[in-house]
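Incident log, support desk, overnight shift.

02:14 A customer reports that sequence design results differ from what the structure should imply. Their input is reproduced verbatim below. On-call engineer (initials T.W.) acknowledged and began investigating.
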C-alpha cells in the first residue's frame, strides 16, 4: 500500500514539475499549479469512469493494468470477479445435480417456511399430494391436504411419529408424512411424503385376519365350554376325571388367548386414548392390589407394598389402564416364587408420572428384554403356559401405554429381580380435582402447614 502511496505522490510531483517551469516562464505559477492538479485528478477521473463502464457492461477487466493505485484496484476486482464466476458455476452445477436427485426420489419432498407455507417441492410431491412447485409457492400446506389432524400435527413440535393419511390425488393410496425441522431455530420444516399403501394394506390384512380368526374361534369355543360346564355337573368315572380337567383348563386357556387377541385388535384399531377422562390412579391401584392379594394368598404368600402419590391422576381410559397395570402386578406374582417382595409405586419423577412394579423374583436375562413385548414371546414357554399365561400380556401393556402417550421401560437382572415402569408425560397427568370436602381439608392442612398428600400403604 505504501508503494502505491509513493507512486501517487511521485505522479503528483511529476505533474507539478512539468507545469511549474512552464508557469514560471509564462509568469503564471498559480495557474500552472492548478493545471498540474487538474492533470493529476483527470487521470483518476479517467480510470474511475473506465471502471464504471466495465462494471456496467459486465466486461472482463483484463491486463495490462495501470502502474498506479488503479492497477491494484483493477487487478483485485478482476480476481474477485473470476472467483465469484467460479463459485457461481459450482453452485449452478450443484443446483442442477440437486434438482436431478430430488426429481428421481420417489418420495414427495416439500420445504415449508416459518408459517407452514410451501417454499419448494419435488415432482413426486405433485404425484402424491398434487403440490407443484413453483405453482403452489407460498400457499399453506393445509390448503392442499385437507385432513383434520394435519394442522394439529404441524403445530406439535414432537414429530417422532409420522402422520398417516389418504392421498388427496387418490384416496386408495395411503401416505405417511414425516416432518423434520431444520434451519435457524428449526423454524423451517422438510416434509417427506411416502406411499405406504402396501405396508398399510398388509398390516390391515394381518389385523383383520387375527380379529376374524379370533371371532370365528370364539363361537365354537363357547359351545364347547358350555357343554363342558354341563358335563361337570354329572358324576364321572375315575379315568374320565383327568382328561375332563385338562379339557376345561385348555378351553379356559384358549378363551384367554382369544380374549387377549381381540383386545389387541381393538387397541390397534382405536385412536389414542389420551386426554379422555380423569382417572383416579391411586384408587385404581388399590383395587388391583386387593385382587392381587387373593392370587398371592393362593400361590403361597408374597409381600406386596404400595406407595402412591394420592393427588396424581391421569387423563385416559380407565379400563385400559386397569388392564395394563394389573397385567404388570399379576405378572410379578405369576412369574416369581412365593415369598417374593413386590413393590408398586405411583409417583411424579422429574417431568413424568411413573407407575413402577418391582419384584425380587428370578429376573430376566438381558437378551430377552427387548423381545418381551412381542406377541407370544415368553422367556420360558412351558412355564408360562403352565401358569396360564397367553404371552400377549406385555404386548397389550405396551399398546395401552403408547395410546396414553407413555412409554414402557423394562429393566431386570437375573437372580435379582425385575422392574417394569410405565412413564407418562406431564401432558396426560393432572392433579386430583378437588371436591368440596377436599377443599376444606386443603385449607385446614395449609393452616396446619402439613406436607403434600402422599399415601404409602402396606400390603
Ligand atoms: P405371559 O402371559 O406369559 O405372562 P407376558 O407378555 O405378560 O406373557 O410376558 C412375557 C414373558 O415375560 C413371560 O412369559 C415371562 O417369561 C416374562 N415376564 C413378564 N413379567 C415378568 C416378571 N415380573 N418376572 C420375570 N419374568 C417376567
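02:41 Re-run completed on a clean worker. Output:
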Amino acid at each position: 500500500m505504501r508503494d502505491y502511496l509513493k507512486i501517487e505522490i511521485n505522479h503528483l510531483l511529476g505533474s507539478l514539475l512539468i507545469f511549474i517551469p512552464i508557469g514560471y516562464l509564462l509568469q503564471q505559477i498559480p495557474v500552472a499549479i492548478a493545471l498540474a492538479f487538474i492533470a493529476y485528478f483527470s487521470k483518476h477521473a479517467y480510470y474511475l469512469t473506465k471502471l464504471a463502464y466495465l462494471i456496467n457492461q459486465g466486461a472482463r477487466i483484463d491486463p495490462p493494468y495501470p502502474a498506479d493505485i488503479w492497477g491494484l484496484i483493477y487487478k483485485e476486482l478482476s480476481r474477485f470477479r473470476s472467483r465469484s464466476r467460479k463459485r457461481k458455476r459450482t453452485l449452478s452445477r450443484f443446483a442442477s445435480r440437486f434438482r436431478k436427485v430430488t426429481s428421481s426420489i420417489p418420495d414427495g419432498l416439500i420445504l415449508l417456511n416459518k408459517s407452514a407455507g410451501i417454499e419448494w417441492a419435488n415432482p413426486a410431491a405433485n404425484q402424491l399430494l398434487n403440490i407443484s412447485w413453483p405453482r403452489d409457492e407460498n400457499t399453506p400446506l393445509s390448503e392442499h391436504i385437507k385432513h383434520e389432524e394435519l394442522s394439529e400435527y404441524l403445530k406439535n413440535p414432537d414429530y417422532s411419529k409420522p402422520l398417516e393419511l389418504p392421498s388427496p390425488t387418490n384416496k386408495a393410496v395411503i401416505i405417511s408424512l414425516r416432518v423434520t425441522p431444520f434451519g435457524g431455530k428449526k423454524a423451517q420444516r422438510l416434509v417427506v411424503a411416502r406411499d405406504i399403501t402396501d405396508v398399510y394394506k398388509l398390516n390391515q390384512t394381518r389385523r383383520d385376519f387375527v380379529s376374524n380368526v379370533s371371532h370365528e374361534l370364539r363361537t365354537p369355543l363357547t359351545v364347547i365350554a358350555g357343554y363342558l360346564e354341563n358335563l361337570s355337573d354329572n358324576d364321572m368315572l375315575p379315568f374320565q376325571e383327568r382328561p375332563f380337567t385338562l379339557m376345561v383348563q385348555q378351553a379356559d386357556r384358549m378363551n384367554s388367548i382369544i380374549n387377549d387377541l381381540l383386545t389387541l385388535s381393538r387397541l390397534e384399531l382405536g385412536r389414542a386414548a389420551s386426554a379422555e377422562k380423569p382417572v383416579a390412579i391411586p384408587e385404581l391401584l388399590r383395587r388391583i392390589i386387593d385382587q392381587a392379594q387373593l392370587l398371592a394368598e393362593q400361590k403361597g404368600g408374597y409381600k406386596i407394598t404400595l406407595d402412591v402419590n394420592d393427588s396424581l391422576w391421569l387423563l385416559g381410559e380407565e379400563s385400559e389402564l386397569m388392564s395394563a397395570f394389573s397385567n404388570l402386578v399379576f405378572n410379578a406374582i405369576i412369574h416369581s416364587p412365593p415369598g417374593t417382595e413386590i413393590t408398586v409405586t405411583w409417583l411424579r419423577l422429574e417431568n413424568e408420572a411413573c407407575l413402577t412394579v418391582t419384584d425380587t423374583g428370578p429376573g430376566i436375562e438381558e437378551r430377552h428384554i427387548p423381545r418381551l413385548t412381542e406377541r407370544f414371546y415368553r422367556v420360558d414357554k412351558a412355564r408360562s403356559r403352565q401358569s396360564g399365561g397367553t404371552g400377549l400380556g406385555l404386548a397389550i401393556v405396551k399398546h395401552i401405554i403408547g395410546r396414553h402417550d407413555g412409554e414402557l421401560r423394562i429393566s431386570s437382572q437375573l437372580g435379582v429381580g425385575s422392574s417394569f415402569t410405565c412413564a407418562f408425560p406431564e401432558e396426560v397427568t393432572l392433579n386430583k380435582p378437588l371436591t368440596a370436602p377436599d377443599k376444606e381439608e386443603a385449607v385446614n392442612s395449609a393452616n396446619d402447614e402439613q406436607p403434600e398428600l402422599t399415601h404409602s400403604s402396606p400390603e
